[in-house]
């Protein structure tokens, strides 16, 4: 089995893990349809990848946006082989700070975004009797950290949803995969809405040697490789769960 000609929709494709995965899968011959909010970044990426890529500005918090992204894939290529639900934010806050706006956004993007993808993809995949839905979860979906309860909650929820998806859809030939990265060097830290935590992260980063940084941080391409491995499996092989940490991470 190969990745050649697979039709793959990726959310959160404008940077980090999503962008790296788009480039790698397209290099291996996939047709990638990219969704995110920052149009300029998507345009740049599509220009870099070439004819195997297209994009649609997408806010995963809006069901109609995700529906339109998936419809673009089907209109263009007549099917949907893979949906990669990858968009996410990580504001991080203490529960006592009661940042209702952040909580709402985290739930809308990290949980509802995944459900919007599943809701839009399943009718197509059921008709095809074939399909693969991959979701970026996190080590934060396995272990709870301080000042991260809501982010952790969204990632635990996504694990439960994806396992439910596996159970419900396995007899329709639809596979589901949870990919849980540890720390990856991306723009995700910019979504932290907590200046003290930002300063702490910057301090640790500045005070560590390049060798320590290397052992503590994955590259987005490391996760893209894992996703490519999943996509390349034949139809009878379902990889349900992958946990990928940088070597030195706790
Ligand atoms: P980035 O911030 O680089 O990428 C996040 C992507 O999500 C961007 O493309 C962003 O695009 C998109 N996004 C955010 N909100 C929305 C929205 N409402 N609608 C559509 N797209 C949206 O970080 P990562 O690559 O690290 O993050 C990707 C995933 O990996 C996330 O789910 C994150 O939780 C998870 N993860 C990351 C880890 C890490 O250490 N970096 C560890 C474990 C998991 P735009 O702003 O243009 O919309």
UniProtKB/TrEMBL annotation:
The keyword Oxidoreductase applies. One of its GO terms (molecular function) is oxidoreductase activity, acting on the CH-OH group of donors, NAD or NADP as acceptor. PROSITE patterns: ADH_SHORT (PS00061). Keywords: Oxidoreductase. InterPro entries: KR_dom, NAD(P)-bd_dom_sf, Sc_DH/Rdtase_CS, SDR_fam. Residues 6-187 form the Ketoreductase domain. SMART domains: PKS_KR (SM00822). Pfam families: adh_short. Belongs to the short-chain dehydrogenases/reductases (SDR) family. This is Short-chain dehydrogenase oxidoreductase. It comes from Pediococcus cellicola.
């Amino acid at each position: 089995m190969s990745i050649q000609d697979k039709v793959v929709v990726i959310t959160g494709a404008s940077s980090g893990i999503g962008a790296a995965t788009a480039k790698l899968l397209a290099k291996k011959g996939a047709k990638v349809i990219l969704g995110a909010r920052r149009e300029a970044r998507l345009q740049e990426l599509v220009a870099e990848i070439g004819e195997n890529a297209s994009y649609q500005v997408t806010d995963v918090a809006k069901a109609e946006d995700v529906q339109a992204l998936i419809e673009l894939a089907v209109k263009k290529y007549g099917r949907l082989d893979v949906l990669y639900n990858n968009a996410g934010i990580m504001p991080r806050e203490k529960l006592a700070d009661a940042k209702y706006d952040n909580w709402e956004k985290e739930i809308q993007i990290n949980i509802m975004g995944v459900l919007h993808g599943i809701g839009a993809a399943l009718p197509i995949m059921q008709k095809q009797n074939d399909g693969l839905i991959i979701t970026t979860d996190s080590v934060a979906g396995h272990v709870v950290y301080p000042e991260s309860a809501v982010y952790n909650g969204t990632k635990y929820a996504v694990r439960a949803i994806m396992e439910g998806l596996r159970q419900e859809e396995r007899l329709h030939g639809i596979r589901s995969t949870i990919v849980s990265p540890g720390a990856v060097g991306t723009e995700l830290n910019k979504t932290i809405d907590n200046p003290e935590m930002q300063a702490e992260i910057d301090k640790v980063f500045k005070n560590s040697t390049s060798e320590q940084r290397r052992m503590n941080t994955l590259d987005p391409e490391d996760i893209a490789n894992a996703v490519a491995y999943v996509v390349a499996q034949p139809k009878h092989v379902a990889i349900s769960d992958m946990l990928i940490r940088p070597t030195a991470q706790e």
